[in-house]
Amino acid sequence: xATEQNVAVTFDARTQTTRIYINGxxxxxxxxxxxxxxxxxxxxxxxxxxxxRTQWWDSNVKTDNLDYCGTMDNFRLYGIVLTxxxxxxVYEDDATSxxxxxxxxxxxxxxxxVAVGEDITFEGAMxxxxxxxxxxxxxxxxxxxxxxxxxxxxxVRVNVPAGMYFVRVMKGTEQVFTxxxxxx
Length: 184
Prior knowledge:
- By secondary structure, the protein is mainly beta.
- It folds into two domains: 7-99, no CATH class; 102-183, Immunoglobulin-like (Sandwich), CATH 2.60.40.
- Helices cover 8% and strands 41% of the residues.
- It has helices at 40-43, 84-93; strands at 7-12, 17-22, 25-30, 108-109, 113-114, 119-138, 143-157, 163-171, 174-183.
- Strands 4, 5, 6, 7, 8 and 9 form a six-stranded mixed beta sheet that branches.
- The chain is elongated, with a radius of gyration of 21 Å.
- The two termini are 35 Å apart.
Protein backbone atom coordinates (compact mmCIF):
# COMPACT_ATOMS: atom_id res chain seq x y z
CA UNK A 1 0.00 0.00 0.00
CA ALA A 2 2.83 2.41 0.89
CA THR A 3 0.31 4.76 2.51
CA GLU A 4 -1.02 5.08 6.02
CA GLN A 5 -4.36 3.32 6.55
CA ASN A 6 -6.75 3.30 9.49
CA VAL A 7 -8.13 -0.24 9.89
CA ALA A 8 -10.87 -1.20 12.33
CA VAL A 9 -12.40 -4.62 12.94
CA THR A 10 -15.48 -5.15 15.10
CA PHE A 11 -17.08 -8.35 16.31
CA ASP A 12 -20.61 -8.23 17.69
CA ALA A 13 -21.06 -11.36 19.83
CA ARG A 14 -24.84 -10.88 20.02
CA THR A 15 -25.30 -11.03 16.24
CA GLN A 16 -22.09 -12.99 15.47
CA THR A 17 -21.22 -10.25 12.95
CA THR A 18 -17.71 -9.17 12.01
CA ARG A 19 -17.21 -5.85 10.22
CA ILE A 20 -14.02 -4.43 8.70
CA TYR A 21 -13.51 -0.71 8.10
CA ILE A 22 -10.68 1.04 6.24
CA ASN A 23 -10.31 4.79 6.75
CA GLY A 24 -13.82 4.93 8.20
CA UNK A 25 -15.53 3.09 5.32
CA UNK A 26 -17.05 -0.36 5.86
CA UNK A 27 -15.39 -2.68 3.33
CA UNK A 28 -16.57 -6.09 4.58
CA UNK A 29 -19.21 -7.66 6.81
CA UNK A 30 -20.00 -11.26 7.56
CA UNK A 31 -21.18 -13.89 10.03
CA UNK A 32 -18.66 -16.63 9.18
CA UNK A 33 -16.94 -16.31 12.57
CA UNK A 34 -18.74 -18.87 14.69
CA UNK A 35 -16.58 -18.70 17.81
CA UNK A 36 -16.14 -15.72 20.05
CA UNK A 37 -12.48 -14.79 20.57
CA UNK A 38 -12.37 -16.16 24.13
CA UNK A 39 -13.64 -19.54 22.86
CA UNK A 40 -10.63 -20.06 20.59
CA UNK A 41 -8.43 -21.06 23.52
CA UNK A 42 -10.83 -23.91 24.28
CA UNK A 43 -10.33 -25.27 20.76
CA UNK A 44 -6.58 -25.51 21.27
CA UNK A 45 -4.71 -23.95 24.17
CA UNK A 46 -2.28 -21.36 22.88
CA UNK A 47 -0.52 -18.42 24.50
CA UNK A 48 0.65 -16.89 21.23
CA UNK A 49 -1.26 -13.66 20.93
CA UNK A 50 0.41 -11.82 18.08
CA UNK A 51 -0.36 -8.55 16.39
CA UNK A 52 0.74 -8.66 12.78
CA ARG A 53 1.42 -12.40 12.80
CA THR A 54 -0.93 -15.32 12.50
CA GLN A 55 -1.44 -17.68 15.41
CA TRP A 56 -0.70 -20.54 13.03
CA TRP A 57 2.64 -19.42 11.57
CA ASP A 58 4.22 -22.80 12.30
CA SER A 59 1.48 -24.90 10.67
CA ASN A 60 1.42 -26.62 7.30
CA VAL A 61 -0.36 -23.58 5.84
CA LYS A 62 2.25 -21.08 6.95
CA THR A 63 2.91 -19.96 3.37
CA ASP A 64 -0.65 -18.60 3.35
CA ASN A 65 -0.09 -16.78 6.64
CA LEU A 66 2.63 -14.22 6.00
CA ASP A 67 3.71 -11.78 8.69
CA TYR A 68 2.59 -8.17 8.42
CA CYS A 69 5.44 -6.09 6.98
CA GLY A 70 5.08 -2.45 7.98
CA THR A 71 4.60 -0.26 11.00
CA MET A 72 1.61 0.11 13.30
CA ASP A 73 0.69 2.81 15.72
CA ASN A 74 -2.35 3.80 17.73
CA PHE A 75 -3.45 0.20 18.26
CA ARG A 76 -6.62 0.05 20.37
CA LEU A 77 -8.80 -2.67 21.87
CA TYR A 78 -12.27 -1.98 23.19
CA GLY A 79 -14.38 -4.24 25.38
CA ILE A 80 -17.52 -3.23 23.45
CA VAL A 81 -18.52 -3.09 19.79
CA LEU A 82 -18.22 0.47 18.54
CA THR A 83 -20.99 1.71 16.27
CA UNK A 84 -20.18 3.06 12.81
CA UNK A 85 -20.61 6.59 14.17
CA UNK A 86 -18.25 5.89 17.08
CA UNK A 87 -15.67 4.39 14.71
CA UNK A 88 -15.95 7.44 12.47
CA UNK A 89 -15.55 9.74 15.48
CA VAL A 90 -12.38 7.88 16.48
CA TYR A 91 -11.12 7.97 12.88
CA GLU A 92 -11.81 11.68 12.40
CA ASP A 93 -10.53 12.67 15.86
CA ASP A 94 -7.41 10.50 15.61
CA ALA A 95 -3.93 11.93 16.05
CA THR A 96 -2.15 13.59 13.17
CA SER A 97 -0.90 11.18 10.54
CA UNK A 98 2.74 10.22 11.04
CA UNK A 99 3.43 11.22 7.46
CA UNK A 100 2.38 14.78 8.36
CA UNK A 101 4.72 15.07 11.35
CA UNK A 102 8.24 16.29 10.77
CA UNK A 103 10.59 16.00 13.71
CA UNK A 104 14.00 17.50 14.17
CA UNK A 105 16.51 14.95 12.97
CA UNK A 106 19.08 16.50 15.30
CA UNK A 107 17.53 14.92 18.41
CA UNK A 108 17.95 11.27 19.39
CA UNK A 109 18.08 9.09 22.46
CA UNK A 110 21.52 7.77 23.37
CA UNK A 111 19.82 4.40 24.02
CA UNK A 112 16.27 3.17 23.48
CA UNK A 113 16.69 0.53 26.19
CA VAL A 114 17.73 1.56 29.71
CA ALA A 115 17.74 -0.07 33.11
CA VAL A 116 15.39 1.07 35.88
CA GLY A 117 16.94 4.18 37.47
CA GLU A 118 19.39 4.75 34.61
CA ASP A 119 19.70 8.17 32.96
CA ILE A 120 17.90 8.86 29.71
CA THR A 121 20.11 11.06 27.56
CA PHE A 122 18.81 13.20 24.71
CA GLU A 123 21.59 13.88 22.24
CA GLY A 124 21.70 16.65 19.70
CA ALA A 125 22.23 20.38 19.65
CA MET A 126 19.18 22.47 20.43
CA UNK A 127 18.51 25.44 22.64
CA UNK A 128 15.01 26.41 23.61
CA UNK A 129 14.09 30.09 23.24
CA UNK A 130 10.81 29.27 24.93
CA UNK A 131 9.99 26.54 27.41
CA UNK A 132 11.25 23.11 26.45
CA UNK A 133 9.89 19.99 28.10
CA UNK A 134 10.72 16.31 28.20
CA UNK A 135 7.74 14.04 28.79
CA UNK A 136 7.43 10.31 29.37
CA UNK A 137 4.15 8.44 28.77
CA UNK A 138 3.32 4.89 29.79
CA UNK A 139 1.72 2.38 27.42
CA UNK A 140 -1.75 3.62 28.44
CA UNK A 141 -0.89 7.16 27.38
CA UNK A 142 -0.62 8.53 30.92
CA UNK A 143 2.12 11.10 31.42
CA UNK A 144 4.36 9.70 34.16
CA UNK A 145 7.17 12.25 33.98
CA UNK A 146 7.67 15.84 32.84
CA UNK A 147 10.69 18.14 33.21
CA UNK A 148 11.73 21.50 31.79
CA UNK A 149 14.84 21.67 29.62
CA UNK A 150 16.90 24.64 28.47
CA UNK A 151 19.10 22.96 25.86
CA UNK A 152 20.27 19.65 24.46
CA UNK A 153 22.13 17.43 25.09
CA UNK A 154 20.24 16.76 28.30
CA UNK A 155 20.04 13.81 30.71
CA VAL A 156 17.21 12.95 33.06
CA ARG A 157 16.86 10.20 35.63
CA VAL A 158 13.35 8.82 35.59
CA ASN A 159 12.44 6.27 38.24
CA VAL A 160 9.69 4.26 36.58
CA PRO A 161 8.99 0.53 36.64
CA ALA A 162 10.17 -1.72 33.84
CA GLY A 163 7.99 -1.45 30.75
CA MET A 164 7.47 0.31 27.46
CA TYR A 165 7.23 4.09 27.37
CA PHE A 166 6.98 6.88 24.83
CA VAL A 167 9.25 9.90 25.12
CA ARG A 168 8.36 13.30 23.74
CA VAL A 169 10.33 16.55 23.57
CA MET A 170 8.30 19.73 23.21
CA LYS A 171 9.55 23.17 22.22
CA GLY A 172 6.76 25.38 23.51
CA THR A 173 3.66 23.83 21.95
CA GLU A 174 5.61 22.22 19.08
CA GLN A 175 6.47 18.54 19.30
CA VAL A 176 10.06 18.22 18.06
CA PHE A 177 10.90 14.62 18.95
CA THR A 178 9.23 11.36 19.92
CA UNK A 179 10.57 7.86 20.47
CA UNK A 180 9.77 4.54 22.08
CA UNK A 181 11.76 3.71 25.23
CA UNK A 182 12.08 0.34 26.92
CA UNK A 183 12.94 0.25 30.60
CA UNK A 184 14.22 -3.14 31.79
